[in-house]
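Researcher: Here's a chain I'd like modeled. Treat it as a single chain, no partners, no ligands.
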Amino acid sequence: MSRLIVVSNRVSPPAIDSTGSQGGLAVALAAALRQSRGIWFGWSGEQVAEFTGKLDFRRAQGVTTATIDLEPRDVDEYYNGFANRTLWPLFHYRIDITEYDRQFDSGYARVNRRFADTLCPMLETDDIIWVHDYHLIPLARELRARGVRNRIGFFLHTPWPPVRLLATLPHHEALVESMFAYDLIGFQTEEWMSAFTDYCLREAGGRVEPDGTAHAYGQCVKAAAFPIGIDAEAFQKAARSNEARAMARRMRASIAGRHMIIGVDRLDYSKGLEERFTGYERFLADNPDLLNRVFLLQIAPPSRNTIGTYREIREKLDQLSGRINGAHADVDWVPLRYVNRGYSRRDLAGIYRSARIGLVTPMRDGMNLVAKEYVAAQDPKDPGVLILSRFAGAARQMKDALLVNPYSSEEIADALRQAMAMERAERVRRNSALLDGVMRDDVTSWRESFVAALKAVPQR
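Model: Modeled as a single isolated chain. Structure tokens:
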């Protein structure tokens, strides 16, 4: 039986513990790795003075991980640089803050070579290799250059930008050409896949077959959409856990008969937090009759604090939250609770279940699994209402949510008013339809469909 080799930027051995607070992606990949005697390979998150390529093998819960440490220069140029200051903002349509630096380019290429050099000796002839995300786009090209002929698939967890935006990246042709070393490329939605094939047609002068096979640069690669899901059953189980019940009781006591709106996002400019706060502020101004009857709880754990744009986001949100509370708070009510810390999945499940409204308004998102977690956590007899950005990948699957333009404070405010007034029968109907999709298109279905498609590709 073929082994599955999963490659990602970061691998954290405790993340494969199925009893912990890790996300559904780790659980789904770990299940596949156990079935195939596979290995999860990537960066440990640790730094060493000089790169040695030494592998740290660990085994837990039946899964083997193999990690390497990187040099500080690697982390600065590859991770903080090209991955998170160039590709991340570009792929989220933010060319205004995208940074271009030749040192970032060279660091990105160097780390992908180091990944390839370290991974090659571990590979067996019939292994199937599954590479994840924008950090490792050129990895297949490096592996092919070292003689690897195994099936190699790639999945992009972020959006893929339109041609006119991608063309702002210096050497964008080389980046796209490197992707033709893969056998299968997976995108979250048909929109992102079409943006990729559009590039192949317009910039590379290639052709695309009806099944998504793109031909360019003298090679071909199959492109397809594989929308990722959550481990829905596990999340529902988490919502019934003692920890979740305790958190729900804590929240109900804190809510004190009011309605809670919940937002949970990593502190990132792609999540639309500034626009969300502004939309909520508009809602408060437009609906004085609802003052003291509702509040927004925004959980936003900090991330990438070494990057200037992330420090700026935090400063702006601190100012906005202060302005909103200063203008509308009363002695016994604060309209906005803004929390910069993370919570376990079980605690989050209890918080979600206590919220009348789930407010998920990213400016651009590959998928957005918070929206699916919120739906899975609801009481089916008395569920809350999901408000979702039409620019999240999840919007294509979750049409029974209240879809909004996150750039419009009026649309956010109107949707909040509609959700507050929504009768139980409509809330039950919408949640039932959303839950059916979340349960059907879960993370296991995503994993199995991608791996099956990759296995179906003829081996080179």
